Amino acid sequence: MMRTTLDLPEELLLEAMSVSHIKTKTKVITLALQELIRKSELSELKKFKGKIDLDIDLDVIRDRS
User: Is 29 within the bounds of a domain?
Assistant: First the structure.
């Protein structure tokens, strides 16, 4: 864990806390950072769309006869 001092727009922070129903500043900032990383990782994965043949039969996976 790292302690740091940040200058953040209070209205932005309060709105993020309100829409996420998170009650602490630390938790809402942590969530925001996690979401930023998740979106970045998803963006990287999208580069492979249509380029990898996984040879998957969804009927077999879903146990359909």
Answer: yes
CB 32 within 8 A of CB 16: yes
pLDDT tens profile 13-37 = 999 999 999 999 999 999 999 999 9
Residue 29 burial (10 A CB sphere; 0-12, 13-18, 19+): middle
Number of folded domains in the chain?
1
- Cα distances (Å, whole numbers) of residue 45 to 15, 48, 51: 30, 6, 11
Q: Identify the three-state secondary structure at position 16.
A: helix
Q: How many CB atoms lie within 10 A of CB 4?
A: 4
Q: What is the pTM of this model?
A: 0.68
Residue 22 CB contacts under 8 Å (≥ 6 apart), including other chains: 16, 28, 31
